[in-house]
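Continuing the series of single-chain predictions for the mutant panel. This is the parent chain; the variants come on the following pages.
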Amino acid sequence: MEQYYGELAALLTAVFWTVTALAFESASRKVGSLSVNLLRLGTAFIFLSVYALISRGKAFPVDAGAHQWIWLSLSGLVGFVLGDLFLFQSYVVIGSRISMLIMSLAPPMAAIIGWLTMDETLTLKQAIAMAVVLAGIVLVVLERQAPDENGNGKRMRFTYPITGILLAFGGALGQAGGLVLSKYGMDGYDVIPSVQIRVITGIAGFMIFFTLSNKWRSLIEAVHNGKAMKRLLVGSFFGPFLGVSFSLLAVKYTSTGVASALMSIVPVLIIAPAIIVFKEKITVKELIGAIVTVVGVAIFFL
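Parent structure:
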């Protein structure tokens, strides 16, 4: 059993991220995506600080250098503030299931950004994998329009609101940019305090946004919404805390490619709870599209 610790940790990570997406979708629908973003970052920072104190003996990233603070802070602004601002609003518009499917584009987008800005290698296999991922997403979000009585209308149309789809794409692009900046900014520094720096910047960014847009009243109302706060706590515990921790265990005990491929199955895992919890109707085409997308991500990493 020990030889499969990494694979098991990767599968559990996918389960945790599925729970997180569903919990944050529910909370965002109740109190708005802006409030959920700021509150979950604050909650996540508490969990991460406790974990850092136990694992490193330091609750805060006091040993980080200027390089780490500058680039990881930029990563936090791009990934947490811009990326998650788009992602969480897409939860409200098109739901977590379709949003997480589109978020599968984040690794390929990160590879392209790394290729363009950091001289990283982009192989033919990775290019094929990107095409497969995109094909799976297109299969889900596009459909051929039925012709009218005059025989017109054999065009493609979006099966979900274009606004939500674009928001999810924005979330994927933000996460991809954040990943590239994180890789450059960490430069050998520990993962947990690196995440803490990103979270600190994310909190600061959202606080500035709340101040400029005069949204603090909505945050106070969100805190007093018991149901939303319970879901937010669940999402924060399973995502930034357990999700990050188990993803590190996965990479430690198995190859990065295998771990990443197993952790990428969220678009398939989320289908069953989306049907049970949110009463969504899933078509065969959407199921096939989700599977094709996951296969594409697996090809990318393996």
